[in-house]
Amino acid sequence: MKPEWKEILIDCGAEFNADNDCEVASYGNVARERRATLGGTIICDLSHVGLIQAYGDDTVSFLQGQLSNDVEQVDASHSQLAAFCNPKGRALASFRLFQREQTIYMTVACDLLEDTLKRLRMYVLRSKVTLEDGNDALVRFGLSGSTAEDELTQALGGYPDEIDSVMERKGVSVIRVPGPFPRFEMYGELDAMNRLWTALNVRCGPVGAENWRLLDILAGIPTVSLGTKEAFVPQMINFDIIGGISFQKGCYTGQEVVARMHYLGAPSRRMYRVHFDIDSVPEPGTKLFSDDGEQSIGSIGMGAPFPDGGIETLAVLKIKYADGEHPVLLGSSDGAAGTVSPPPYDFPPAKEKS
Fold it and tell me: 287 CB contacts (<8 Å, ≥6 apart)?
C-alpha cells in the first residue's frame, strides 16, 4: 500500500487490522458499515487484495500457457477471471485479469502473492515477460450500491455496462463485477484515485474490507487463498459457470484434468453459500461434516459477517449434501449447523451417463 494512500484513508477515519496493516477493519462503526453494505452505496479500499503485474513482448503467450482462461481476450475493454493450476488441475490461485497500457494486472489473495509469483516465474524460461509484485503500482477501491452507476456518471462521465467490461476515464480503470447491486472495482495512480475517492465520499459511505468479501460471497465469486490452495479443481469453485475457464483455448498447466472433468464427467462437489449462526469467521479450509459418519463433506472457501447476524460463507460441498436432507456441520460432527443456499447463478444440467 502506498504510504500516501494510507494517510488519505486514515484522514477519512480508517482503522487497520492489527495483523494486516494493508486491510481496513472499519471507519469507526462496524455495525453501521455492515448495514450500509446491503442498504446503501459504499466505497471500500481494496489494498488487502494483492496485485501482480506482467509486462513484456511475450506476456500474453506466457500467461496463455499457464492460466485457465483465454488471456488473448483481455484488453483495455475486457477483464476476466482465471485460475492458475498445478499439473493435477488443482487451483494454486485465482485471479481477475485486466490491462492498462502494455501491462496486464492480476488480482490475487494477498497471502498467496509471493508464492504465486515464485511459481509463475519458474515457467518463464526464455519468454520475454517480467512478473512483479504490483501492490504499490496502483491504488484500488470498490464501489457498490443502488446509486453506484449515478455516482460514476457524475464523477467520471459514465460506467461499464456489462459484467467484466472495463472503462478507462480520467486515469481510472473501472471494471464492472458481479454483485447483488451494481458493483465496480477501480484502479489507477494515486492522484486520479484520490480525486475519485474524494468525489464519491460525499454520498457513499466508506466501509471495511470484510464488507467487500461479503459482496463477493453474495455474488458467488470465490478467492483461492492460502487455506484453500490446491484444494479445488476450478469447476468445484464454479469457475466454469462464472467465466473463469475457456474450453476452446490451447494447453495450460493442469488443462488435461480440467478438460476431462468437463467433457467426460462432472464435479462431485460444487460451491454454495452456507450461513452459520456463529460469531467469528471460520478460517478458509475449515472442514465440513454431516451426521452420516462420512469423514468430510467439504470445506470453507471464504467467509464474512452478515449484517443481520451470523457468518455467510462460500463453501465447496459434495453435491448430495446441498439438498438440506443432511445437516452441514462446521469443523466437526458436533459443530454448528449451516443453512445451504445456491449461488445466484444456475448450475449446468448433469450429464447423462452412457
Answer: 296, 298, 299, 331
